[in-house]
Design brief:
0% helix, globular
């Protein structure tokens, strides 16, 4: 049974930083490409970062490129999202999952960027 548990969200001022963590189980973590998505109220879920299973190649949309960094620790079955220079438009619930998403979602972690 696939389980994904996100943590690390919170309230932060614009320009601040947060580091999200996602602990995964129920699949062969080291062989899976992984991703972080986010969804704000009334909006579609958006891909914000992905990382390959092989050489750690990462990819980001222009909206977060240069500010967000995805990484993984295969020994800990954990994927991270370092978010710097946060903006109010980054406010959303953040989810981790496989890439491409196969329908497995955790409860997410809320990130609120507000002064």
């Amino acid at each position: 049974q696939v389980q994904l548990v996100e943590s690390g969200g919170g309230v932060v001022q614009p320009g601040g930083s947060l580091r999200l963590s996602c602990s995964a189980s129920g699949f062969t973590f080291s062989r899976a490409a992984l991703a972080w998505y986010r969804q704000d109220l009334g909006k579609e879920r958006e891909l914000v970062a992905s990382i390959s299973s092989t050489d750690g190649t990462t990819s980001y949309p222009d909206s977060v490129k240069g500010r967000f960094t995805i990484s993984r620790d295969n020994a800990k079955h954990t994927v991270y999202l370092q978010m710097n220079s946060l903006k109010p438009e980054d406010t959303a619930v953040y989810y981790c999952t496989t890439y491409p998403a196969l329908g497995y979602w955790g409860q997410g972690t809320q990130v609120t960027v507000s002064s």
